[in-house]
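Thought: the user wants the 3D structure for the chain below. I'll pass the sequence to the structure tool as-is, report back what it returns, then summarize two notable features.
Action: structure_tool
Action Input:
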Amino acid sequence: MKKFLRTAISVTMAAAMIMSMTACGGGDAAGGDTAGEKVEISIGHIYNTNHNEAVALETLKTRLAEESDGRIELKIFPSSQLGSEREMAEQVALGTLDMGLSDGPTWSNALNVPELAVFGLPYLYKDIDGQVNAFDEILTVADEYMSPAGVKPLFCFSASIRGAIMKTKPINTLEDISGIKMRVPEISMYVDTWANLGANPTTTAWGEAYTALQQGVVDGCEVDPSTIVDANIQEVTNYFSKTNHMGTVHIISMNMDKWNSIPEDLQQIILDVSKEVSTGQAEDRKIADEASIQKMVDAGVVINEVADEELQKMKNAVQPLYDQYDQEYGLGAEIEKLQAYGWGEN
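Observation:
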């Protein structure tokens, strides 16, 4: 009941904001007589304003305004102002929010398109460079599944490679994972990944992760270095294990009706500028992650590598997920293609 009310409130807030913005904008459909028309676009995300992806969106806002001579105004709502990541993805589908920033598994749940979760399979990408190699392939395939569901994928951000930040003990082996209470997002792919690894996955909203760790509700959470430090998780944990279990790629997407309402010249500016910003964001993410790991060390967190043979055991443990997406959705060839990009073989 509480989740229903929170979602309803978030949708209502978003709807009110969009109605207000529409009153200021208006205009014809793409390709019409729209010279000089101003377009306002809203986007929400879960991060604090100093987070790498939040900073990249601010850069996007500035560059869109510059390249369009002020005709494109991006309105950004950070820090979960409009709800959780999944709730905002659902709002994009409904059209009460223009744009959302979510990974394939989150879009999969929000749009009820299970094939989209393939982009979030564990051990699909070696590192950030591997993610960038796969961006174009991800956008091409995502468009096939998202556009019919009323959402247009536009560009990607690297949300880095995830590890396990633990309060109780480090993870050095597959056996170390057995029975631990691991906080995961409210998304099936994350739950299934950690269940296959032997953990007891516990779903909470990201905004509740700090308290859950502090109070011992969970033993740890799986997330990337920049996001750990962004939320000050290092204050209530002791170990960061480089399980490298999942490389998260955020697919920044727009409600299709909103996209079709934007004049074609402005659509092209959005595509061109977003590609430029996407490239810069990935490079900045590498730097941000390195700085974040140092901040964890400074806070007393022990950083531990996981041996290759143990990483292989973990990868073997999640093989049923690969089999599922091949058998149920016929995505075996696509998985191999993504792995080839993600591990630098293409």
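Final Answer: Structure generated. Residues 30 and 264 are 5 Å apart (CA to CA). Strands lie at 39-44, 72-77, 99-103, 151-166, 181-184, 200-203, 220-223, 239-255, 302-305.
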